Amino acid sequence: MSTLDDTLALYDYVFPPELIAREPAHPRDSARMLVYNRKTEVVSFDTFAHICDHLPRNAVLVFNQTKVIPARMELTKETGGVIETVYLGQENGLLRVMASGKITSGDNLRWKEGHFFIVEERDGKFALLKPSFPLNDFHTLLDRYGETPLPPYIKDSPLSETERRTEYQTVYAKTEGSVAAPTAGLHFTEELLKKITQHGCAVRYVTLHVNLGTFAPVTEDQLQQKKLHEEFYEIDEDTAAFLNTAKAEGRPIIAVGTTTVRTLESAVETRHVASLRRLSGMTDTFITEDDTLSFVDGLVTNFHVPKSSLLMLVSALTGREKLLELYQRAIDEKCRLFSFGDGMLIL
């Protein structure tokens, strides 16, 4: 076995496929919550509606306010073949997409209402497309004709596109740019956020745009270089100042979601001083069990797929063996798994 295979085998676990959630809990905060206190090692189960019963009154909860865009486009080749693409961003006036099927430079891919793209370049799973319309019109057209991409492990979701645009989106989503939702935030309602502040906790928001790398298998290069896929993050100055003060005062900083952990830990300039300084940029931070988090004290997170970088990140808080033990408890309790599933509160 390679070093990669050895490492991934350590983060493998078995689960019944029927536990994969195909749609979210209704209401959102009725989702179940495994609570793990690291100091006492006590494990309990509750629902997110009662999260205030478990939060320290002076805690600060930090959420990722990125907004999922309907990034999936179904395009048609001149031969009639269908090409599924997911929009990832723009490069020099072209659209960067992940594309299935066989396409080559020069191919004409039809979209909707006479709009089309010319393939400028194909590189493995990715392609650069030149649109037949002004680039400034793209997001309007994407909103009209695009579809919300769900994670690859959610098969045959019963949700319509209209439902996906609501259900696969946090209630506080604000800044467009993600192709996947920061799913730990799906458990929170506007009413629950009010209860959290009434409980004495503070709520603040940062932004990290989630790309498809979050679902990609860990590679040998990533493991060797200790660097993951890049994602853009941003923290406004007022939020950073508030969080830095809260941290200095010893208030527990609880990240809602692994993307929020990546954001906060990427913004810390030196490991020895827990202060947010790098407030925007691209992050390729790869957090594993060997890392000590500088800024984050607790985490709200969903249950992640085996062998994933997300599992490795959460193990930085719990340790790998304890995390897999907690997952087995959740599976025994028949918790719903993955993006639309139940979650954990680690304190």
Characteristic key phrases:
alpha+beta; QueA-like; Thrombin, subunit H; 2 domains
Largest beta-sheet characterization: 9 strands, mixed
Query: Which range does the strand content fall in?
Result: 25-35%
Rounded mean pLDDT is: 96
> Order of strands in the sheet with the most strands?
2-1-19-18-14-3-12-13-17
What separation lies between the terminal Cα atoms?
Answer: 36 Å
Count of individual domains: 2
The assigned CATH architecture of the largest domain is 3-Layer(aba) Sandwich
Catalogue the unreliable spans.
none
Approximate helicity band: 10-25%
Shape: globular
| Name of the CATH first level of the largest domain | Alpha Beta
- Give the CATH topology of the largest domain: QueA-like
Q: What is the CATH superfamily label of the largest domain?
A: QueA-like
Number of strand segments:
19
Per DSSP, the total helix count is 9
Broad structural category: alpha+beta
Query: N-to-C SSE series?
Result: HEEEEEEEEEEHHEHEHEHEHEEEEHHE
Q: Radius of gyration over alpha carbons?
A: 21 Å
Structural notes for this entry:
This protein is of the alpha+beta class. It folds into 2 domains: 3-68 and 164-346, QueA-like (3-Layer(aba) Sandwich), CATH 3.40.1780; 72-145, Beta Barrel (Thrombin, subunit H), CATH 2.40.10. The chain has 9 helices and 19 strands. The strands form 4 sheets. Strands 2-1-19-18-14-3-12-13-17 form a 9-stranded mixed beta sheet. Strands 5-6-7-10-9-8 form a 6-stranded antiparallel barrel. α8 crosses α9. The chain is globular. The chain starts with a helix and ends with a strand. The mean pLDDT is 96.
